[in-house]
Structure of GTP pyrophosphokinase:
Amino acid sequence: MTELELEKENVAIAKAYKELLRVSYRTLTNDDKKLIRKAFDVAVDAHKDQRRKSGEAYIFHPIAVAKIVAQGIGMDATSIAAALLHDVVEDNEDYTIADIEQLFGETVAKIVDGLTKISSLDTEMDVSLQAENFRRMLLTLNDDVRVIIIKIADRLHNMQTMESMRSDKQVKIASETLYIYAPLAHRIGLYNIKTELEDLGLKYTEPEVYKDILTKIKESKEEQDAYINEFNNVIKTSLDKEHLDYDIKGRPKSIFSIRRKMQNQGVSFDEVYDKFAVRIIYKSEPENEKFLAWKIYSIVTDHFRPNPTRLRDWISSPKSTGYEALHITVVGPKGRWVEVQIRSERMNEIAEKGFAAHYKYKEGSEKEDNLDTWVAKLQEALENHETNAVDFVEQFKLNLYSKEIFVFTPKGELKSLPKGATPLDFAFSIHTEVGMKTRGAKVNGKLVPLSHELKSGDRVDILTSETAKPNSNWLDYATTARARGKIKSSLKEDKKLIAEDGKEILRRKLKQLKIVLNEKSVNELVSYFKLKTSLDLFYRIGVGTIDNKMLKEFASSRSNVFMSYIKNKISRKPTLTKEELDKDEITSKYDLLVFGKEEEKLDYKFANCCNPIPGDPVFGFLTINDGLKVHKKNCPNAVSLQSNYAYRIMIAKWIDSSQQEFAAKIILSGIDNLGLVNEITKVISSNMHVNMKSISFQSDDGIFSGKINVIVKNNTLLKKLMDNLKKINGIDKVSRV
């Protein structure tokens, strides 16, 4: 570069720095300005020889990120300094985290360290490693939430300046942004940044679609402005009569959300009617905010008919991100649906700046900052390290993007839960212990199943019992990451206890067969029963899936020469000690597909349109000529099948056949005597792994007959139960139907 060009660049850098200080949302003290200046000088020095792909000096990137942090998100001077320094340690060997700590103190160093760790994650990788890295990234939240906020700003600027990159890199970064960064921004309450990230993500993942919608929005801008004016003119007089200080703005829907609507509803751009919202922003004293919001609501609905099902009162109960507003959908001029958002200036700032505005408007510290609550919730979601990384990120995303409902505790406290939550999610949101001991639930005073979907305004009362504990069906009822994580951990512990018992049972049984339980014999058994780990083997012995007969067959097969050859080839190391048992994991084979609530085995065929494989989320569809066809839940035809032929849909799920539970009906008869029913139920409940579904007895002239429906894991357990029932005094016959 020539000296003149360098001179121009230096002037541009100085100008960018002054702009950063000028646009900061917070009022900067002299100490703040000194801290930011020092960070700027270090960043300029560290990046002096670096250029971006576009050719411009690298220092423009940290300044731009700091500007987003200062103006767009409204963070403090510490965050602005950390944003300026976010690439210093990673890109320059002259600076270490220790240097940053010495120059700027522990807090800035901690944030920069967190950002450096995230940046150093390898990005050329498969999905599971990528997910593992996201998990590690989210764990930096435990250090300082500002790490994530600056990372979102960094990602936004990278997305804004991606033109010079290779197209494959663009698609990769854009997909990653849509996958995790946009949901994170949404959850922190940075709606403007979330919208921009989504639109930029679409720009690079589906460029044609993006350009097409953008062109159409530009073409319809004039028409949209005219429509807003028409809407405005109708209510202006009434608002002015009330001496309100307000502003009415039209806000087009984001390109990404128009695209989503077109996809979900199967409509064209012209058929998306609510392409924009009208925002009424009014000035108000804090004590009058709510009153004025409802006054404006009343004026709007005097002129336009509201849709009663689309009223959203986020003022009385703000979202967990802190968002407050009154949303109504009305029939506007020309019979079009229009969403009207009513917000005070304070609410509008919170909607745009999220927690920074909360901080500004907070009086003293009597209000708990919503960011702290959010971080606490996130840390709960991050607690459960046992799930695999892909499940973890998927579950985490579910919780990020979920819409909220508000339900009441019996004492009238308000609890926020994701849409689709069940009483089980509610129980775990109160306390883990309450969740673990849940026996049933009442919603609005009525007993409901644990799978019941809660609605806003429900009053939920959890019934607990000391003897209650989670079972595998609970995973079908729970939707939140917290509840599912706790249930999975509990089931895993149960399985480990059964596996430990199973190991002792196996030791005894092998002793009778003159076989010693050691590494070699366990390896052979794991291989013989086609299992994956020694823990699988011990668990199946514990629940009786592998019985004496099967073990005798194994013993006789040991003498086979071919088996001896196979054994020698086996090098799988089993886990035998209790410590090692804890580390191992029971594996699911997903080899059996069952249908309906009764989990029946039926004949089926796989659909050619989506070719499901074991483990995929699926559903069954009853065809007229081809019997039962199995489709993936995200099959291209799923939406049309489910909407047009809902009566032909059967729920289906994959299970591990060796761990399946079966329904059986037992018939009893004998001489009736006092306390007989009590004896029978005692025997059933004392039998481990037997679950009684229904029981009915009939007595006729001193003779009784009864039917019991039970759920058991296998034949051995059923036989044992029937033998125990026969021992009861007065019972004559016990048979299975």
Q: What stands out?
A: The chain has a mean pLDDT of 81. The chain has six domains: 3-161, 214-353, 402-468, 490-561, 593-654, 662-736. The domain at 214-353 is CATH 3.30.460.10 (Beta Polymerase; domain 2).
